[in-house]
Structure formats: structure tokens, C-alpha cells
Design brief:
Length: 793
């Protein structure tokens, strides 16, 4: 291996020879790129070594197929994992450059919608930290999730262009290209079946190395970009049709142009299905090419290849793998099926019916005519082997991707204990009865490198000073902080860290958003995708009720509170967009009220993304995890907050249940109905109305909204919301309101006692070690993939 020059020298060399600048003339972006390249060089060594070890040992490889990788910025991740923070900071300071400004210059790669995509990114980092040979496969969207801004309080979506600024991390692989076909016809001659697609595009690979802790290992994130097979039509050009000449390329590129703006909306169905097949087909070709070069014998595939389907989005991998093995490689159908099942496993991330993919069979059959035949054969085989089976992969003229994924996988997992139980008793109850060993639980986790060491350096130093640095890749060590939590002097330092983080955030909000807040207020934070089940509207209702109450009685000793929101609503999800607008409208009125100003402020920060989360999580006092029980599969934001010392106010939903078990009931503000009670309450006639009648605070908050108190120019603006809450209220906002109010007043009282609060917060940190994604990945390696770590092997 080549010996690299010092970081300082590397940076200056890149500035000069990669970007043609000297330090005097380099702009911020040049510095950011030069530092990134210097860090990337160091990652690249680890990466190439890891690849060699994987080949040399013939180890099993893990392939994580995901339509989303919400990786965010990568420079800080690299610097932190290679332990170069002090050095990088010093070099930049020497040239008068601000380290934070250099980091913030990097575009935030928003190739995902929310938790599902962020989980995939945390998993890649943990796979590298653990030295498990792995590849992430995804799509290189030119435009990630839209940029959000507010106009008159309304969400406005603008395209996101992360690739427009220079991007330091990817290596283009023009030699790695595969053809992906759509449509056409199937030709059957006896046992020989061939699919002749009508349309073909090419998938080209772009690789990003993902480095683990201390640079011991690095894996690959391989993203596919669409291109035309014949990018330019010279004939049309020569006939003067210049636009037409460029058309093949434009069409092919559409496939990787934009991230689907939600995992639940209805639009763009055909393009979405094409994207799913595009990713899956290219990934499987790549996997098989690598396997062939190394091992050859296809029967060994399950021993050497584990393919994880991140939700049903890449579920077409099942029939595609069978198609390649059977139609193209000539294995008997039953053998192809068995081999595919041996390789594949599937993670379910939600029980929401609208998110369980089901494709119109005519669309599906038109785009993937051979796959629909194979799905029928897989379905028939499964039915024949399980005569008591009633549900099929084909029902209501649709192809059910959940059923398909389950049948094609040797393991199916949920993402929290409660969610896994609900999978067994609801959506997959029949398949679970037929295959009682298939469903396993792997509770989600988050990487402590990004979500503590990187984003909260003050807390990280205090922890390291107290228990040493072993916690960074062995997060269970945090329990060793327990004696410190009893120590008043240590707790003061813990509290000071939080306060300093809050001051930073307050200054940043003042500078960038003109929001002025007192850092001694309770920072109450709800940040996540907008969705009715996540119940941002429950939070704003409570805020409005609190505002009214403070106005009635300003001298009652209120605990000053800042309600912070951030999150995007899917562009077609109008109800969610109305909730955003309501929060902004209410914020304008509440923040302008001099009577309540010392006690209550509301802010909705625009354009929520990974970087904003990194800023908010370390500064939060209270974590809002208030979904209707049974609806939030796990949550991962909940874990980030607990780890960073923000107790939760939450329902018994998703991983909240396990967080409460770990941090202790006394350090968690529980409220609301259980998943079981929710199911029963839905059947109670007029449940919303009863709840409203019983609680004058709720009544008043709803009246204020309905009567246009927050939208005087347009009093009817929120009748959609109030009508829904007073009527069907499917997500039981009204029924949980009273108990939520009670829990929030407990929060007020607890926060008013500062030493009690610090103790609660510190307990949350000390007891959150189990929520490391290293623990989760170890679980997948042992229970699902049968994969081994190669570090130290
Ligand atoms: C989803 C679930 C979360 C879960 C996450 C990762 C789809 O993410 O709803 O409960 O933690 O997957 O498993 P999100 O809602 O954040 O987009």
C-alpha cells in the first residue's frame, strides 16, 4: 500500500493538483473538495484492502437492496470515523477557514424520504464498522427529496440538485453497465422460455465507499444511473430534428431522475415500477457476475450471497432471480426457486395498508410480462405445497408484493418487537401460520458514530472522559455512566453540555430563520415526515390549548417551552400539507402574543433533512413520539433523542416500547391508548365526539381553529382538519388528547426541577446503548444472513 502524506500535505496537494488552486485563491468549495479528497484517499486504502480480504477469504457477502439511502453529508462521517477531527480543524484554521463552514458546504444527499432510507444508511455504516462484507445497491437519483420552503405558511416544493455542486465521494464505473428491459413479449418453446423486451436502458454503476469506525473496513454503496444504449440519434440530427436526436438519452435518464416523493402516494406508478425493476435487475446481474467469477456453481449461491430486500420495493428480485436461474441458466424451476429463497430475505417497515405495494396486474403484465408468469407459477407452487392456504399473490386484479416477498424469503423481519408481533397477528397472519419460523424481529438502531460522536461532540467528550472511548463501537458500555448519573457535579456538566448545544441552536435559528428563543426554555421537538398517524396535529392542538390556558392565567408558573417542528409532507398529501400550514399560522399568532411570549414559542423549521436533524437532536430536551399506537413500525428518531439525552413523551408504539423498557418507566412520559385499545376504540360510535365533549380544552382548541383564529382572512381554511377530527378521526387524535395534555403537564413539572430533569436525561443516555445499529446488524448477521465479520479474522 502507498504511504500517504500528512493530512495537511494531502489537502494542499489536492487543492493544487486536483483543483488547480493555491490557498490564496481557493474558494470554500475548493477547500471542501480538497479536504474531502484527502479524506477519501485514506478511505480508499481501507476500501481496497477490504475488497481483497473478501476475495481472499471467499467469505459470504451481504447485499442490501434499497430504493432509498438517506446518507446526508459524508465528509464529517469520514473525518469522524478516521479520527481526523482535530487535525482537519487545525489545518483549516491555519489557512483561516472555518471547519464547520467547510462541512456545511457539502450538499446533503437526500436520496430517501425518512426513516426507511436513513436506516439503510446507518446499516451501511455499521456493516463497515463490524467488518461484514457488504454492498448497498440503490439508485443514483439526480434529484433527491424536494427542497421545502414556506410561502404564507404553505409548503412549497422545489427541485433538489445535490449533484449540481461538486460531489467528492463517488467513483464512476463506466465499465460496469447492464441492460435492463421492459415490456415486449415472451416466447415459449417447450421448456425454453425467452423474454424479448421492447425497450431497453442501461444501468451504469457509481460507487461510494462507506468507511467504518477507525477505518478498519469499508464497504461499497453502488448506485445505478440510467442511460440510453444509443444516446444520440445521428440520423434525426442530420435531418434537423435536434430535440428528437437527444430524446433517447433524455428518456433513459428519466428512470433515475427523481426519488419517488413518498412511500405511500399513488402517482407516477409506471415510472416507480420501472425504477424498482431497474435497481433490482442491475443489482442481481452484478451480484451474479461477481459470484460467477469467484465460485461458479450456482447451487452454492445461498452459501455465499445474502440479499436483503428493504421493504417490498425491490421485491421483484424474487421472480427476477428465478427467471435468470431458470430461463437463462437452465436450472429446473424448483431448484431455481429454492436457491432464490435461500438467498433472499425481506424487511417489513410498515403495516399501513396504503404502503403495502400492490400493482395493477395490467400495468405489471405490460412492463414485466415474464415476471407475472413466474409469479403465478411461484404462487401455484406455494399453494400446492400449502393446501390450507387462502390468500394469493394475485387478488383484486393486483399483484401483492408483500405476499410475494414473504413467500420468496427464508426470513421476514419486523423492525421492533411490537411491530413484529402485529405482523404475525395481522397482515401476515396466514403466512405466519404456514411458516411459523420465518418471521423474526430485528429492532432498528442508529449509528452512534453519526448520531452521538459526530453530531454531539460535547456530550461525546464528556462520555469519553468518564468511561473511555470504547463506547463508540460498543454502545452497551454507556451503562457504565450509571454511577455518574448519581453524582451531582457530573450531572451539572451533563446539563451544561445540553445548555451549550441549545445556545448553539438558538443562535443558529436567530441567524438563519429570524427565530429568537431563550435557550432556557424547554426545547420540545417533533421532527419527522408529516403523516396523520405521526400526529403532528395532536401536538399543535395541545400547543393551541396551552396557549389559551396561559392567556387565561399568565401567572400560573408555566414552564417556558419552545415547540419545534420540522418535516416534509408528500406533495400530493393535502391533509398533511394543511397541518404544516396550520402549525405555521398558529405559530404566527402565538409568537406575536405578548402575554404568552415568555412561556410559549412555536417554530416550524423548513427543509428538514439529515443535517438539520444532526443540529436539532443534540439540543432537544423533549422528544415527541406520539403516533397512534400500532402505526409507527419502529421509529429511529426516538432512539437518537434518547441517546442524546432527551426523554420521550410518547405512546406505546414501535420501538418506544423498548426504549421505555431500557430507560425505565420513570424516565419516559407515557400517554395514550395501547395498540389493542386503539383497535377497540375505533369501533366505538362517535369516539371523537365523546372525547371532545369530555374535554373543554380540546373543545376550545378545535373551536379556535374552526373559527379562523389563526387564519382570519380565510376562516374556513382548516375546516378539512377540524371536520376530520370531529368526525372519523381515524388516528384517534381526540381520544388521546386528554392524556397527552396530562403527560405534558408532568413534563412541565419535571423540567421545572432542573436536577431531576438532568438525571432523567442522563439516564436516557446511559441506557440507550442497545439502540446502536451495530446491535441490529449483529442480529441480522446471526439470525438472517449467516454472515461473518472479517475484522481480525
Ligand atoms: C419507516 C417506518 C418507521 C421505521 C422506519 C425504518 C417506513 O420510516 O414508518 O417506523 O422506523 O421505516 O424501519 P418513516 O416513517 O420514518 O419513513
Amino acid at each position: 500500500m502507498t504511504k500517504l502524506p500528512s493530512l495537511r500535505e494531502s489537502i494542499l496537494q489536492h487543492l493544487r493538483y486536483s483543483f488547480g488552486k493555491d490557498p490564496e485563491h481557493a474558494i470554500l468549495e475548493d477547500w471542501r473538495m480538497a479536504v474531502s479528497y484527502a479524506v477519501r484517499d485514506r478511505i480508499t486504502d481501507a476500501w481496497i484492502n477490504a475488497t481483497h480480504r473478501t476475495y481472499d477469504t471467499g467469505a459470504k457477502r451481504v447485499y442490501y437492496l434499497s430504493m432509498e439511502f438517506l446518507i446526508g453529508r459524508l465528509l464529517e462521517d469520514g473525518i469522524v470515523n478516521l479520527e481526523l477531527v482535530d487535525e482537519a480543524r487545525a489545518v483549516l484554521a491555519e489557512f483561516g477557514k472555518d471547519y464547520q463552514a467547510v462541512l456545511a458546504d457539502e450538499p446533503d444527499a437526500a436520496l430517501g424520504n425518512g426513516g426507511l432510507g436513513r436506516l439503510a444508511a446507518c446499516f451501511l455504516e455499521s456493516l463497515s464498522t463490524l467488518g461484514c462484507p457488504a454492498h448497498g445497491y440503490g439508485i443514483r437519483y439526480e434529484h433527491g427529496l424536494f427542497r421545502q420552503s414556506f410561502v404564507d405558511g404553505r409548503q412549497v416544493e422545489m427541485p433538489e440538485h445535490w449533484l449540481e455542486q461538486r460531489h467528492a465521494w463517488e467513483f464512476e464505473r463506466p465499465e460496469v453497465r447492464y441492460r435492463v428491459g421492459f415490456g415486449g413479449h415472451v416466447d415459449t418453446r417447450g421448456e425454453t422460455v425467452r423474454w424479448y423486451p421492447a425497450e431497453e436502458v442501461e444501468a451504469e454503476a457509481f460507487d461510494t465507499p462507506v468507511v467504518g469506525w477507525k477505518g478498519r473496513w469499508a464497504n461499497t454503496l453502488r448506485l445505478w444511473s440510467g442511460r440510453a444504449i444509443h444516446p444520440f440519434d445521428l440520423d434525426r440530427f442530420n435531418h434537423g430534428d435536434y430535440a428528437g436526436a437527444a430524446q433517447p438519452e433524455a428518456l433513459a435518464r428519466t428512470i433515475s431522475r427523481v426519488l419517488y416523493p413518498d412511500d405511500t402516494t399513488e402517482q407516477g406508478k409506471e415510472l416507480r415500477l420501472k425504477q424498482e425493476y431497474f435497481l433490482t435487475c442491475a443489482a442481481l446481474r452484478d451480484i451474479l457476475r461477481r459470484f460467477n467469477n469467484q465460485f461458479g456453481d450456482l447451487r452454492k449461491l445461498p452459501a455465499k450471497v445474502a440479499i436483503q430486500l428493504n421493504d417490498t420495493h425491490p421485491a421483484i428480485a424474487g421472480p427476477e432471480l428465478v427467471r435468470v436461474l431458470h430461463d437463462e441458466r437452465g436450472l429446473p424451476f424448483d431448484d431455481a426457486l429454492e436457491i432464490a429463497q435461500g438467498c433472499l430475505s425481506y424487511t417489513n417497515h410498515t403495516l399501513l395498508p396504503e404502503a403495502l405495494e400492490a400493482w395493477d396486474e395490467s400495468l405489471f403484465g405490460r412492463l414485466l410480462p415474464r415476471h407475472i408468469q413466474l409469479i403465478d407459477r411461484i404462487d401455484a407452487t406455494h399453494a400446492a405445497r400449502n393446501p390450507s392456504r387462502q390468500q394469493s399473490m394475485r387478488a383484486d386484479h393486483q399483484v401483492k408484493m408483500g405476499q410475494l416477498s414473504f413467500v420468496m424469503a427464508h426470513k421476514v423481519n419486523g423492525v421492533s418487537a411490537l411491530h413484529t408481533d402485529l405482523m404475525k397477528s395481522t397482515v401476515f397472519s396466514e403466512l405466519h401460520r404456514l411458516h411459523p419460523d420465518r418471521i423474526v424481529n430485528q429492532t432498528n438502531g442508529v449509528t452512534p458514530r453519526r448520531w452521538l460522536l459526530g453530531c454531539n461532540p460535547r456530550l461525546a467528550s464528556l462520555i469519553t472522559e468518564s468511561i473511555g472511548e470504547a463506547w463508540v463501537d460498543d454502545l452497551d458500555q454507556l451503562t457504565r455512566l450509571e454511577p455518574n448519573v448519581q453524582d451531582a457535579a457530573w450531572l451539572d456538566r451533563y446539563a451544561q453540555v445540553k445548555r451549550d448545544n441549545k445556545v448553539d441552536l438558538a443562535n443558529w435559528m436567530a441567524r438563519h430563520h429570524g427565530v429568537h428563543v431563550d435557550p432556557d426554555m424547554l426545547f420540545d421537538v417533533q421532527i419527522k415526515r408529516l403523516h396523520e398517524y405521526k400526529r403532528q396535529h395532536l401536538n399543535i392542538l395541545e400547543t393551541i390549548a396551552l396557549w389559551s390556558e396561559i392567556r387565561d392565567n399568565p401567572e400560573a408558573g408555566w414552564t417556558p417551552r419552545l415547540k419545534l417542528f420540522a418535516g416534509k409532507a408528500a406533495p400530493g398529501y393535502f391533509f398533511a400539507k394543511d397541518i404544516i400550514r396550520l402549525i405555521n399560522d398558529a405559530a404566527a399568532v402565538i409568537n406575536a402574543d405578548p402575554v404568552t411570549a415568555p412561556y410559549l414559542k412555536v417554530a416550524f423549521l423548513p427543509n428538514y433533512n439529515v443535517s438539520l436533524a444532526e443540529r436539532l437532536v443534540p439540543a432537544a430536551d423533549l422528544s415527541e413520539q406520539i403516533s397512534t399506537a400500532g402505526k409507527e413500525a419502529s421509529g429511529t428518531g426516538n432512539m437518537k433523542f434518547a441517546l442524546n439525552g432527551a426523554p420521550t413523551v410518547g405512546t406505546l408504539d414501535g420501538a418506544n416500547v423498548e426504549i421505555r423498557e431500557h430507560v425505565g418507566a420513570e424516565n419516559f412520559f407515557l400517554f395514550g391508548m395501547t395498540a389493542e385499545e386503539v383497535m377497540e376504540r375505533r369501533h366505538v360510535d362517535g369516539h371523537a365526539w365523546r372525547a371532545i365533549e369530555a374535554d373543554p380544552r380540546l373543545r376550545r382548541a378545535l373551536d379556535l381553529i374552526r373559527d379562523g383564529r389563526f387564519s382570519p382572512q380565510d376562516p374556513g381554511r382548516y375546516h378539512g382538519i377540524t371536520g376530520n377530527l370531529e368526525g372519523p378521526d381515524y388516528f384517534l387524535v381526540c381520544s388521546d388528547f386528554t392524556d397527552y395534555w396530562r403527560a405534558q403537564r408532568e413534563v412541565d413539572a419535571a423540567f421545572a426541577d432542573r436536577s431531576r430533569w438532568s438525571r432523567m436525561a442522563a439516564w436516557n443516555t446511559a441506557r440507550s446503548g442497545w439502540f446502536s445499529s451495530d446491535r441490529t446488524i449483529r442480529g441480522y448477521m446471526a439470525d438472517i444472513w449467516n454472515a461473518q465479520s472479517l475484522i481480525g479474522a
